[in-house]
Amino acid sequence: MTADTAADLLAIGAVTAHAVVPWVLRQRRSPDGLRRYDRATMLLALCAAAATVAGTGPLTGASGETAPTVDTLWPPPLAGGLPWGPAVALGAAAAGAVLPWAAALCSGRALRRRAARPGTGRPGRMVNAAHLVGCAAAEEVLWRLACPVSLVAVGAPPVPAVALSLTGFCLLHPPQTGWRSLPYLAVAALLFTVAASLGGVVAAVFAHTANNTVLACFTTVPRRAASAEPPVREVPHLPEPTAWD
């Protein structure tokens, strides 16, 4: 086994560990589960990114063909692979922000502004925002960069590698949001993947962050109750299990 292969396997191991984290936290019923998930995600993303950059290189198969690398399978992680990368990133952010509104509209519900938790001052809001952005970026590094690139580097075909990344990402969230959120998660994962394929991982991070921001600031309610009731006093990290029926 070469050093490059070992590094790619380490990246796959970090992604696999991340897939297990939310299920372990659910089993243990951690009182601070969301914060622990965020921190574990960011730590594993750093490990996976370092391993991917160190390990992914030109690999020659038995047929003599060179396997895709991080620059050929996927756009570079810190910039769009196309001249219009910044425009793609902005468009991805807009699409990520619109997705919850479109899902609410399709489900016959409406989004309503959440009220901030009592006692949450500016420092607390800044910490929450940092966790939201950091976790979104870390998930994209793990599932839109490290997972497909490392799988292809060790010999997996690109399409199954991307499909496995999509599936793994969707299965992260049912421990917190319930299985009914899977259709929404599948659409969101597809959006993030398209953004990454067109504008690099940064575009996917923009889309993911915008999407999570809307979900953190708004909740879904029946349309007739949207203007009759006061804001809901909770700030969940992800959509409620029954939000996208």
Task: State the main characteristics.
245 residues, 4% strand, 65% helix, two-stranded antiparallel sheet
Can you put this structure into words, describing what you see?
The protein is mainly alpha-helical. 65% of the residues lie in helices and 4% in strands. The chain has a two-stranded antiparallel sheet. Helix 1 packs across helix 5 and helix 6 packs across helix 8. The longest helix has 36 residues. The protein is globular, with a radius of gyration of 19 Å. The N and C termini lie far apart (48 Å). The C terminus is likely disordered.
Short characterization:
This protein has 245 residues and is mainly alpha-helical.
What does the secondary structure layout of this molecule look like, with pairings?
Layout: H1 3-28, H2 33-55, H3 70-73, H4 85-106, E1 109-113, H5 122-153, H6 158-170, H7 174-177, H8 182-217, E2 218-222
Antiparallel strand pairs: 1-2
How far from one another are the termini?
48 Å
State the low-pLDDT regions, or none: 57-72, 75-80, 241-245
Q: Biggest sheet, strands in spatial order?
A: 1-2
Structural class: mainly alpha
Helical percentage:
55-70%
- On the 0 to 100 scale, the average pLDDT is 80
Rg on CA atoms, Å: 19 Å
